[in-house]
Specification:
462 residues, Rossmann fold, seven-stranded mixed beta sheet, six-stranded mixed beta sheet, 14 helices, binds guanosine-5'-diphosphate
C-alpha cells in the first residue's frame, strides 16, 4: 500500500559518532559534555580515560579521572565519565559521555582526541536520528526535543514536553487508526463485496468527517502553538516624546532603551525580547518617525520603516495629554494596510478619565505608573488575531501542519467521491493518501530524504 522509498524506523549498523553536547563559549559554563554513540564508544572511552583506583566500568555509573592524550601521555582534563551501554541509552547504542571543564579549550581537545581515536563528528541531530531509527522515539517526540531546546517561553517548553511525552503521537496515531479501520472495510468490499455484509456508506463518511474535523482543529491549534514558540514582532511607533522608550522599559523592566526628554534621541532600532502571558514578544522601538534633515536620525527612520514592514503588528503610541495630532495621523498612514495596528494613548496619568480622543484608540495606559499594562498586552494579542494561553495540549510544527493539511484535503477528496456515489475503490485512493500523510507525521512511513531534512534542523550534539 505504501509506495516509494518509505520506511519505518530501522536499526542501524552504525559507526561511532561524537560531538560536544553542551553550548560552547569562551569563559562560560563550568561543565561541558563530549558525547559518543556507537559500537566503539566504550573502547574509545577506555583508551582516553584513566580512572584511578578500582573503579569498575559499569553501565550507568560515573567514573572519576583524567582524559589523557594517548600519544603523549599528557593530561588534557580532569573529568567524569558516564558509560551507558546499549540498549539503555538515548540512542539505544553504547553511549559514553565525558563531563569536562567548560569554556573552549579542554572540551575541544577532548573532542579532537575522540575523533583521532576513530569516532566521526556527528551531524546536527544525528543522536536523535539514531534514537528514532533504533525505535527509541517516534518522529513527533524527536521533533519535540528540538523544540524544547529552542523554546523561548515556559509555555513553549511545556508544549514541547507534552510532545516528548507522546501526546501528539497518540493523537495522530489514533486518528490514523480510525482511518485504517475504514480503509480496511472499504478495501474488503472492493475485493469480496459478495461475501461480506453490506457496508453502510453513511457510517464511513461520518467517520471520515469526524477525523477531518479533528485534523482541522489541530491546524487551528497549531497557529496558537506557533505563536507560543515563535512569538510576535511588534514595532512601537509614535511621535518623539510620546513615551515609546518608557513603555518598552516598563514592559521589559530593564533599561535597554534610553528614556529621555529630548525628542528624537532614540536613534536606532532597539530590540527587546520579553515574554508576556506566555507569548514571546520582540519589541522594536523605532526612532521617532518624522521629516528631518539630521543624517543619523534619518537612518533611524529608514530602519523604522523597515521594522514596520517586518513587524507582525504595530503599536502606535500617542500622547493623550497632547491629543490626537496631525503628526499622529501621518504616522498612522505609514502603517501598511496588511499589518494589524493597535493605537494606544499614553500618559493617562495626566488626564482625567474620559473618552479617548482618537476614535481608533483601544487602550489607554500610563507608561510611568504601569496602569493599563495588562489591557495593552491583551489588546495586542487580540489585534493580531491571537489570544493568550488557552490550555493548549499539543501543537503541530510547520512540517506536521503541512501533512495534517494534506490528510484533511485527501479526506475531503474521499468524501467528494462518496458524495458522488462512486464505487468503493474511488473512496480508497484518497483515504490511503490521508493515512500515509498521518504516518509521515509520526514517522511510521517516511522517506529518508524527509528524515534527513527533519534532523538537519537540530543542533549538533542532540
Ligand atoms: P519617546 O521619545 O517616545 O521614546 O519618549 P520617552 O519614553 O523618552 O518619554 C518622553 C518623556 O515622557 C519622558 O520625560 C518620560 O518620563 C515621559 N513619559 C513617558 N510616559 C509617561 C507617562 O505615562 N506619563 C507621564 N506623565 N510621563 C510620561
Amino acid at each position: 500500500m505504501i509506495q516509494g522509498p518509505l520506511r519505518g524506523p530501522q536499526p542501524l549498523s552504525a559507526d561511532t559518532i561524537a560531538a560536544i553536547a553542551t553550548a560552547v563559549a569562551a569563559g562560560e559554563g563550568s561543565v561541558a559534555i563530549v558525547r559518543l554513540s556507537g559500537p566503539a564508544a566504550e573502547a574509545i572511552g577506555r583508551q582516553l580515560f584513566v580512572a584511578p583506583g578500582r573503579q569498575p566500568w559499569d553501565s550507568h555509573r560515573v567514573l572519576y579521572g583524567h582524559v589523557r592524550d594517548p600519544a603523549t601521555g599528557e593530561r588534557v582534563d580532569e573529568a567524569l565519565l558516564l558509560l551507558m551501554r546499549a540498549p539503555r541509552s538515548f540512542t539505544r547504542e553504547d553511549v559514553v559521555e565525558f563531563h569536562c571543564h567548560g569554556g573552549l579549550i579542554c572540551v575541544q581537545r577532548v573532542l579532537e582526541l575522540v575523533l583521532a581515536a576513530g569516532a566521526r563528528r556527528a551531524l546536527p541531530g544525528e543522536f536523535s536520528q539514531r534514537a528514532f531509527l533504533n525505535g527509541r522515539l517516534d518522529l513527533t517526540r524527536a521533533e519535540a526535543i528540538s523544540q524544547l531546546i529552542t523554546a523561548r517561553s515556559r509555555r513553549a517548553a511545556q508544549l514541547a514536553i507534552a510532545g516528548l511525552d507522546g501526546g501528539l503521537q497518540r493523537r495522530i496515531t489514533a486518528l490514523r487508526e480510525r482511518l485504517l479501520d475504514q480503509l480496511a472495510e472499504l478495501e474488503a468490499r472492493v475485493d469480496f463485496e459478495e461475501d461480506l455484509p453490506p457496508l453502510d456508506g453513511a457510517m464511513v463518511t461520518a467517520e471520515l468527517q469526524a477525523v477531518r474535523g479533528e485534523l482541522e482543529q489541530l491546524l487551528v491549534d497549531a497557529s496558537q502553538g506557533q505563536l507560543l514558540r515563535e512569538g510576535l514582532r511588534v514595532a512601537i511607533i509614535g511621535r518623539p516624546n510620546v513615551g515609546k522608550s518608557s513603555l518598552l522599559n516598563r514592559l521589559s523592566r530593564c533599561e535597554r532603551a534610553i528614556v529621555t526628554d529630548l525628542p528624537g534621541t532614540t536613534r536606532d532600532l532597539v530590540e527587546s525580547e520579553l515574554v508576556l502571558q506566555g507569548v514571546p514578544l520582540t519589541l522594536l522601538d523605532t526612532a521617532g518617525i518624522r521629516a528631518t534633515d539630521d543624517q543619523v536620525e534619518r537612518l533611524g527612520i529608514e530602519r523604522s520603516r523597515a521594522a514596520l514592514q517586518a513587524a507582525d503588528a504595530v503599536l502606535l503610541l500617542f500622547d493623550l495629554s497632547a491629543g490626537w495630532t496631525a503628526e499622529d495621523q501621518a504616522l498612522r498612514a505609514l502603517v501598511p494596510e496588511a499589518v494589524p495596528l493597535l493605537i494606544v494613548g499614553n500618559k493617562a496619568d495626566q488626564l482625567d478619565a474620559g473618552p479617548l480622543p482618537a476614535p481608533e484608540a483601544e487602550v489607554r495606559i500610563s507608561a510611568l505608573s504601569g496602569d493599563g499594562q495588562e489591557q495593552l498586552v491583551e489588546a495586542l494579542l487580540r489585534c493580531c488575531g491571537r489570544s493568550g494561553d488557552q490550555g493548549l495540549q499539543v501543537a503541530l510544527n510547520g512540517r506536521q501542519c503541512e501533512l495534517a493539511a494534506q490528510a484533511a484535503a485527501s479526506l475531503a477528496a474521499s468524501l467528494e467521491a462518496a458524495a458522488q456515489q462512486l464505487p468503493w475503490d474511488f473512496w480508497t485512493i484518497d483515504l490511503r493518501a490521508a493515512v500515509r500523510a498521518l504516518g509521515e507525521i509520526t514517522g511510521e512511513a517516511v522517506s529518508e530524504a524527509v528524515l534527513d531534512r527533519v534532523f538537519a534542523r537540530f543542533c549538533i550534539g542532540k
